[in-house]
Structures are given as C-alpha cells and as structure tokens.
Design brief:
Blueprint (H helix, E strand, L loop, with lengths): L15 H23 L8 H21 L1 H15 L3 H18 L8 H23 L4 H21 L5 H8 L3 H8 L7 H6 L12 H6 L13 H10 L10 H8 L3 H18 L9
Helix pairs in contact: 1-2, 3-4, 3-5, 4-5, 5-6, 6-7, 7-8, 11-13, 12-13
Length: 286
Amino acid sequence: MLIDRETVASEPLLSPSEERELARQIEAGVLAREVRLSGRQFHDATGLELVTLEDLGERARQRFIRANLRLVAKAARQAARRSQLPETDLFQEGCLGLICAVERFDHQLGYKFSTYASWWIRAYLGAATANLFGALNLPTSRANQLRLVRGVVVELAQSYGRSASVAEVAAALGRSQQWTAAMLAHQPPQSLDGLRAYGFDLSDSAGGSDGELLDSDRPGVELLWHLPDLDRQVLGLRYGFGDGTAHTYAEIAQLLGLTVSRVRRLERRALEVLRTVCPRSAHLHL
C-alpha cells in the first residue's frame, strides 16, 4: 500500500463502532493466515475461506491506516515547524508510527485509537528527528548508513502494510542480521511496555482533545540519546525498540559479541541514566 499525503483528505473518518469492526477483521485475517500457513484445520474452514478472511483483514488494515492519516499530517506539520526538517520526510516517518499502532491496537482494552496512535506517531517522529540531527555529528559513511536503513524500513512498511522484521530488513539491505539489529536499535519503542517505560500514558483519563495530545510535549524516545551507543543498542534490543521483539540477554550477547554479564551491566547502567533524566521511567524493573 502506497501512502501519500493526497490520501489524507480522501478517506472518511471512522466511528468507534467502525474502528472495533475493522480491528476484529484485522485480527481474523491474522489468525486465518497463521492457520493456513500452519496447515492446521480450524473448525470447517476451507482454504478459500481462510484466504477470504486474510483479504478482508488486509483491506481493513489499509482502511484503518488511511482513515487516520490526518493524525500523521498534523503531527508531521508541527514537528517540521519545530525542527526545520522536511515535512514530507517526517510525514513518511509518522506513517510508520501509524502502521505500528494499527498492528498493535487491541480494541478490547478500551483505549481510544486516536489517543493510542498519537503516541506511536510522536514516538516515530521523535526518533526520526533525533536520528537526523544525530547524523549531523556522525562520520558521513555512518550517517548515510542510518539514512539507508530508515529508507528501507519505510519502503518495506508501506509495501507490507506492517513493520518489517529484522530478517526482512537485513535481506533487503543485503547485510547481516547482527549489523541490521545494531542499526535498528536506534529506532523507537515497539511495545506498549516500551512506551510506558518512557513516560507515555495511554489512558484517556487525562482528557484533552486529539489536537491537545498532538501539541503536548512529553518525554519520549529522545531520552535514548542520553545514552552511549552501546548502552542504547543493548536497551533497544532488550525492550524490543527495533523489530518489536524483546531479546534475551543471551541473544543480545550473541548479536553484539558481548558476555551475558556485560549485557546485564550495560542494561542496568542505561536504566540508571534514564531514571536520572526522567524519574517517570523509574518503574522499570531491574
């Protein structure tokens, strides 16, 4: 699915009941795909019925994304004014956050989708801004590598309608998964726990309109830039900031060529730094 700004005004907004129905269709499509690929029987569902459910789920996903592009457009416009970075680039980054929100939205939890999606969009925009500004202080080759990875991540997400895995990004880049995982450690959080760890409140209890939510200034993924590179990579892999998978200490040690005890020490040090710069992250368990 190609996402562009011309789509923003063309798709009607969704009612709460429509959001719930689309979310159910997406879930059914994901389940149907898993059953079909596993070869298991699911009640009396035929292969054709499973494919039909998959197709309906994908159409629901695309409609859900298109109907919420206004959130991305507004957030990107505001971020561009603050950062002086190209609004078009920021819009594409914000679309990644929206795709991520659609993938992970659980309508049964009672969250308003616009509230939930706004934080994901802001998280991706914050990380993109930090990456672009941070790249100014990196060697040219390293900065170009970061931009290349971001470009591939955007392209794959738009193509698949979901966030790409480390393996998929690595294959597209023609690089190893270890190298790709290290680069993806610069990306924004990919789990609810990751968002909460950096002070994001997903409840509606605080009130406020969607516009107020987008206008608010809360600490986010920019906190990661208080950390040394290795600490940031360890924390990113540990809490699934890159591909949505929280890695074990042993997996991180293997990916980064470290000992397990070294990984544990780096994680502890990183969390202590984050507690210093943002006390609200203190509920992370060590």
